[in-house]
Structures are given as structure tokens and as C-alpha cells.
Amino acid sequence: MLQLNPILTSPDASSAKSVVMAVGGAEDKVHGRQILTTFCQRSGGLDATIGVIPSASREPDAMGRLYHDIFMEIGVKAVEVLLVSDRSHGENPDLLERLERCSGVFMSGGDQLRLSSLLDETPLLEKLRHQVWQGQSVLAGTSAGAAVMGERMIASGGSNEPPNRSLVDMSTGLGFLPDVIVDQHFHNRNRLARLISAISAYPEKLGVGIDEDTCALFEADGHLKVLGRGAVTIVDPRDVSYTSYPHVDLTDPVSIYNLRVHILSDGDCYNLLTHRALHKTV
Amino acid sequence: MLQLNPILTSPDASSAKSVVMAVGGAEDKVHGRQILTTFCQRSGGLDATIGVIPSASREPDAMGRLYHDIFMEIGVKAVEVLLVSDRSHGENPDLLERLERCSGVFMSGGDQLRLSSLLDETPLLEKLRHQVWQGQSVLAGTSAGAAVMGERMIASGGSNEPPNRSLVDMSTGLGFLPDVIVDQHFHNRNRLARLISAISAYPEKLGVGIDEDTCALFEADGHLKVLGRGAVTIVDPRDVSYTSYPHVDLTDPVSIYNLRVHILSDGDCYNLLTHRALHKTV
């Protein structure tokens, strides 16, 4: 296995495991695989057992196989594809037992509403949340798999318009990161306005817009670290002094004053407790 | 004339004239014509003589005729099309004399580099700047005609990427609003990243991103007022605590912490002296 991928090592005591990785979609699956390799390493490296939840996809079997092969190539010990294509699967004892063995769980892209409606309020989700919060499993999700991370989730939305109430459809997410609203394919698909629209509606949340092939890695100690080719854009509404939301017509622009915005790139950090961005040397 | 357009009135003492209107392109030319009518009104209403500079356009004759007809329909007294299609025209005594008569001057869309290279350092531009700054003429520009307003100008750029050094090509603008960098078609064409890229390079400037059919109206008293259907997005780098510009590779994302961003809509104000956004009731 070491010959296949000398990047992975055995886990050591310094690798804290309570980690959530929100990936902005289109992560490198072929060449450097920085993000996927980091996920495997954080999940236990050579000793990792990775669970793949491909439920967001319309072709979950093919999606499951794709990531199965990638993670095996990267060099983990085992990959379990956890096929949940019906809500009843979420209480299947065999699936729950296989989830238990996973030191890392990866949620694929697809449709975040499909993913959330298949998993929400199932024993499988409860178990996964418990394992993640206890530090037993590292969680990663890409695209739709990242969108579901918050308690509130962007289900869909438009672009090429200023922020407005009709630009975004919100729904209930899976709540792994209760305090953030995640958006993905961020600069790639012109999604600042829809993230600001979402934040206008939920100003107690922090907006996190993640570019393609880029990851916001939420550490157990309250730091968000950035890795990958693009940027993570933080939209912090804590200082907002005025917003016209919801007192405007559905399609009129929403005014919002004093948003604090950080553009973070590979190696940068953001402290979720102090709301300060930190340079990569920290 | 009053029958044609009862919106216009004769000027009164309360209408301060030292005004620059930066329009984000695609302003309504057919129906309500809110922005173009406001421009005519601020230029003197029924008594206005409007100069049209269609030099940004590849078809300046047709563009000149278009705005000629629109402004005449709105009901101004006269329209002068100031055809500058060669730098030598910028010292033509006839053109200079006709400019002198204009209480409002409108620069059309097209290519901002064509416009700036035709006008820069000509007597016509000097005269226009003098008239605008003295409050003799209201100045408006749409799209390319807005892009040239700053001392530094976004000549062209890309989108669908995070902010980076190669995302924007800067050039010299016409300097009517020395302290701002204007971008247009803003949310419509996903231009936040290029405006942030520009601001990273010129952090002493204020970024002003203007949506289509939307106007940032710079009053003589230091207020920016918003009118129109979209938003004006202010990107204020005054509090920036860190940026990796220019110490990153050309295409790598630029990190930038603590940008202050305001989304302003019709009726909102921004005080350019105190850098505070103000609600429309102010």
C-alpha cells in the first residue's frame, strides 16, 4: 500500500480527528488530489476505513464506485459504500454497523435536497452526527454534500442578480455545522448574491462560500482552515447596521450595510470564535 | 414639450448641479427611463442641453442618434452629439464650443479603452472636467462610460474565478472621480472578484460595483445616492488587515481580510467622507 501512495502515513497522536471538511465541488480526483488525500490522512491514513454516502447523486451506484476506487487508490485500508436510496435504509442495521467502522465519511455531490430528505431524522444520520461530534469519524462533503452541512441550507437559487428575497430557496440542512450557511461552486457560479440573500434572512449565521477544488476544513478547536486551488469567502454579518430584509418586495434588491468579507486562500485560517481571519503562518 | 414629457420641469435653485452619474449599463431606454430622466432633470430639465459622447461605441453615429432621440423624447431643449472618433477631434474648436453649451454630458457604452484613449489628455477632456467640477455640467456615463470615471480604470477582466492578479487589466481612467474604481454590469456578470482584484492592487481606492439599470449618483456634497432597479455594491478596503497581494503567483487567489461591503439599493446613500452607508430616509 505504501508503494501505491507514499503520501499516506499511519495516524499519530497529533492528528486531532474531530473535523468537518466542506468542499466546494469539482475537487481534483485525478492528479494531486490534495483535498481527498488530506481527508484520507485525517481519517486515519493507511488505517482509515472510508464510508461513501452517494445519496445526493441521481446515479448513486456509479458515484459510489467512483469514490470507492479513488479512496482505494489513495491507499486507505477499506472503503464502505453506504447506499441510502430510500429513507428506510437509514435504519438498516447492516448499514449502521458498517457506518460504525468508518473513521471517515464522504458525502458526494448531486442534489442537496435529495440528500437531506433521504437522511434527515434517520438513525443513520443521528449515528453519523454522534460519530463526527465525538471525533470518531472525520466528515467530508463536496458540492451538495457540503451544502447540507449547516442547520439552514441553500436548497437552490439564482445568480446574475443583486441579493433579493427570491434569489435563494432555503431548507433544513443536516446540522453538522449549525452556525454556518455553506455555498459551493462559489466564485465559479456567481453565488455571492445568493449567499448574501441567505445571510440577510438568517443574520445569526456565518456565510461560507467555497470555490471549486477548495475546502473549508473546520477543526475541533474552532478554526476554519483553507486548502485547495480557489478561495473560501467568509460573509460575516455581525456588524450589519441596517438591512431592508424582509421589508422589500420579493424581487427588489435587499439593502445590507456593513458586511465584513474575507477572501481566504490555501493555508489561511479563520477563527470561528473570535471571527478573525489569520494568516497562514499562524 | 410639456405634453411630451410632463416629468421634466424648469430648474430651480434647489437642484445643485455638480453631479456625476455612473450607470451600470443596460439602463431603461424605453419605459420608465428613471435614470435617463433623472439625468435630464438634474441637467436642467426643460432648459437642458445634453451633449452625447458616443466614442466608446464601435458605431458612434448610430449610438449618438439613439441617445439624441431618447433625450429629445424625454423633453430637453437640445441635444448635441459630440462625435469624437479621432484624437484630433478633441481640439476641434467647434466641438469645444458645442461642449460649452452643454448643461449635461452623457458618455455611452462600448469599450472603455477606446473611450479613454480617444479623450485622454485632449482639450475636450480638460474642458469637460472643468465644467463638471465647476458644476456647469452634470456628467453621466453608462457601462464603458461609467468605467472611465475613476483615475484608475478596469479595462477588462475575467469572472468565475476567485480574486487573483491576472483577473483584471487596469488602465488609466478619465479621473472624474479620482478616489473610486467603478465596475459595471456588476452582479449581472459576476464581477465581484475582479473588483476585489482591482482593489487589492489599489487599496487606497473605493470599489463601486454598479448593476444594470442602476446608477451611483455622486453629489457635490460627498454623498453617493443609488437609483434604479439593481444594487450598488461598495467594497471598502480601509479596514483591511492583511492581503497577500502582490506576493502570490499571477493566477493564485489573493487573500484579503476585513473588506467592508455594503449592498445599496434605490434610495440608499453612502457618505464618501465618513464611509458610512445611510438609509434612504436620511
UniProtKB/TrEMBL annotation, chains A, B:
Task: Give the enzyme's main class according to its UniProt record, as a single word.
Answer: hydrolase
The family this protein is said to belong to: Belongs to the peptidase S51 family.
**CDD domains per record:** GAT1_cyanophycinase (cd03145)
Q: Which Pfam families match?
A: Peptidase_S51
InterPro entries linked: Class_I_gatase-like, Peptidase_S51, Peptidase_S51_cyanophycinase
Q: Which PANTHER family match?
A: CYANOPHYCINASE
What is the species of this protein?
A: Candidatus Synechococcus calcipolaris G9
What is the phylogenetic placement of the source species in the record?
Bacteria, Bacillati, Cyanobacteriota, Cyanophyceae, Synechococcales
Protein's recorded name: Cyanophycinase
Q: Name one GO molecular function term.
A: peptidyl-dipeptidase activity
> What is catalyzed by this enzyme?
[L-4-(L-arginin-2-N-yl)aspartate](n) + H2O = [L-4-(L-arginin-2-N-yl)aspartate](n-1) + L-4-(L-arginin-2-N-yl)aspartate
Its biological purpose is as follows: Exopeptidase that catalyzes the hydrolytic cleavage of multi-L-arginyl-poly-L-aspartic acid (cyanophycin; a water-insoluble reserve polymer) into aspartate-arginine dipeptides.
Any idea of its EC number?
3.4.15.6
